[in-house]
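Anyone have C-alpha cells for Molybdopterin molybdenumtransferase? Sequence:
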Amino acid sequence: MSSSMKSVDAHLADILATVRTLAPLELELERALGTTLAEEVSSPVPLPPFDNSAMDGYAVRAADVAAAPVSLPVIDDIAAGSGELRAIGQGHAVRIMTGAPLPAGADAVVPVEWTDGGTVTVRIDRPVREGNAVRRAGEDVQAGEVVLKPGTTIGAAQLGIIAGTGRRRVWVRPRPRVVVLSTGAELVEPGTQLGPGQIWDSNSFTLTAAVREAGGDGFRAGTVTDDPAAFLDQLDAQLVRADAVITSGGVSMGAYEPVKEALGPLGTVRFEKVAMQPGMPQGFGVVGDDQVPIFTLPGNPVSSYVSFQLFVRPALRKMRGLPAGPPATRPAHLLAPLHSPEGKRSFLRGVLADDGTVTPVHGQGSHQLAALALANCLIMVPEQVTEVPSGASVQVIRI
Ligand SMILES: Nc1nc2c(c(=O)[nH]1)N[C@H]1C(S)=C(S)[C@@H](COP(=O)(O)OP(=O)(O)OC[C@H]3O[C@@H](n4cnc5c(N)ncnc54)[C@H](O)[C@@H]3O)O[C@H]1N2
Ligand code: MOO
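Reply: yep, here.
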C-alpha cells in the first residue's frame, strides 16, 4: 500500500473515536420510532391485568359441562370493557366476549361454536377442560417485570409494548439529524432543464435517503456552487439543526474545491487519501461551537455512497447508542473474475443471489450510478489482491 494513504480501518477508527453518542431525551411515543431506548421499561401492572376470555362464548365451571350436552341458564352478558361482574354459581353460564374479564366462579370458556348460542339458556355440546380459552393475568408480563432493556432499537412491536405498559413518553437516544449538502457549479435540481455542462444533483437525494435507511433523519440542504464563502454561509445556517453534516464534492485536486478551501483553514477537518476504490479522497472532522461531526465525501456518486456505507453508517450507529464497527461481511462465491488496484481495498458492486453466489454488475466506474442501483452488495477485495478469479470465495457487504 502506498505509504501516503491512510487505511480504511484507520479512517473508520478515527471517526468512531471522535463521534459521540447522542444524549437521551424524553419523546412522545409518536416520535420514538427508530430511536434507541435509553431506559429500562417495565410494566406497573400485570399484563393482561385480569383473567379474561380468549374467545367469544360462555364462561362456565368446567365441572358443570363435563356431562355435555347440557343446558345452563345464562345469568349475565359480559362485553370487553365491562367493569362490574356477577360471580357465577354452580350450574350457571355467562355469555362472554373475547377480552372481557372472566367472572369469579368461572374457570373455563366454551366457544360459541360449541353451543346453540342461546341468551336465556344455552345448550353446550362439548365438555371443556378447566382453563379452556382463559388468558390469565400476568401471562404476558408480571407486575414490575422489565419488558425492554436500554439499547433496544424501537420498532413497531417495541413501540407497541411501551404503549401496552401505559407509557405516553419514553427516554430514548434520538435519531441523529443529519444535514446533507451537495457542492458543484454543474449541479441543478432534478425537475428543471439541463443547460450545457450541467447535471442533475443526485448525491443529496442518495445521501439523505441513506441517512434515513441508517436510522437518522436526513435533511437535504440543497446544493451550493463552487464558492467557499457561500458554502460556509450555508453550512453555518444549517449547523443549528444538525447532529452531523455530510457534504459531497469539492474535496479532490481540482482548481475549485470549495469544501476543502472553506474547511481546510479551520484546522478541525482533515482531508486525506484513504486506500480504497472508490472513495479515495475523504475528509472528516468537527465544525462549529458544538463540534458537529462533518463528513466531506467525494463527489462521484458511487464514491459518496460507498463512503457513506463504510464511514457514516457506523458513525450514525455510535451516535444512536448502538454497537458500531466496520460493516458486516459475509462470504460469497464469485461468478466472474475481478480486477482491483494494487494497494487499495476495492468495494465493487455486485448482485448477491439467494444461493450465495455473487455477480459483479457491468459498469464499475465511480460515476456509474445506474450500475450501483442494480447492485445489492459491495464485493470487498483486499489491498494486496489485484486479480480475483471466477469461482473464488469473496467477502461481501449487503447494501
Ligand atoms: N487529479 C486528480 N483528480 C481527481 C482525483 C485525484 O486524486 N487527482 N481524485 C478523483 C476521485 S477518486 C474522485 S472520487 C473525485 C472526487 O472529486 P470531488 O469530491 O472533488 O468531487 P467533484 O469534483 O465535485 O465531482 C466529482 C464528480 O462527481 C460529480 N458530482 C459531484 N456532485 C454530484 C452530485 N451532487 N450529484 C451527481 N453528481 C455529482 C461531478 O459532476 C463530477 O463528475 O475526483 C477525482 N479527480
Ligand atoms: O476514489 Mo474516487 O472515489 O473514484 O472514485
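The longest helix spans residues 301-319.
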